[in-house]
From TrEMBL:
UniProt cross-references to PANTHER family, sorted A to Z: 60S RIBOSOMAL PROTEIN L34
InterPro entries: Ribosomal_eL34 (IPR008195), Ribosomal_eL34_C_sf (IPR038562), Ribosomal_eL34_CS (IPR018065)
Origin organism lineage: Eukaryota, Fungi, Fungi incertae sedis, Mucoromycota, Glomeromycotina
Protein name, as recorded: 2065_t:CDS:1
Alphabetical UniProt keywords: Ribonucleoprotein, Ribosomal protein
UniProt key word Ribosomal protein: yes
Keyword check for Ribonucleoprotein: yes
Family that this chain belongs to: Belongs to the eukaryotic ribosomal protein eL34 family.
Length: 78
């Protein structure tokens, strides 16, 4: 029979922010690994398309990359 798992954090509901996947630890124990939400990246305020040349990161990660990685000189061609 498969081993039962319980959440490791206080949130006990299957929500978007509480996604998990089962993995085996080096000690042979089955445990949950929490997954981060996928990043969408910045979009144009006028037309809503993704901005080219800027990586899709979670909001806090933009503080860790340099300024030149947060800007783009690529312009839209109509």
């Amino acid at each position: 029979m498969a081993q039962r798992l319980t959440y490791r954090r206080r949130l006990s509901y299957n929500t978007r922010s509480n996604r998990v996947r089962a993995t085996k630890t080096p000690g042979g124990k089955l445990t949950w690994l929490y997954e981060k939400k996928p990043a969408k990246g910045p979009h144009c305020g006028d037309c809503g398309i993704r901005l080219a040349g800027i990586p899709a990161l979670r909001p806090r990660q933009y503080a860790k990359i340099s300024k030149r990685q947060k800007n783009s000189s690529k312009s839209l061609r109509w």
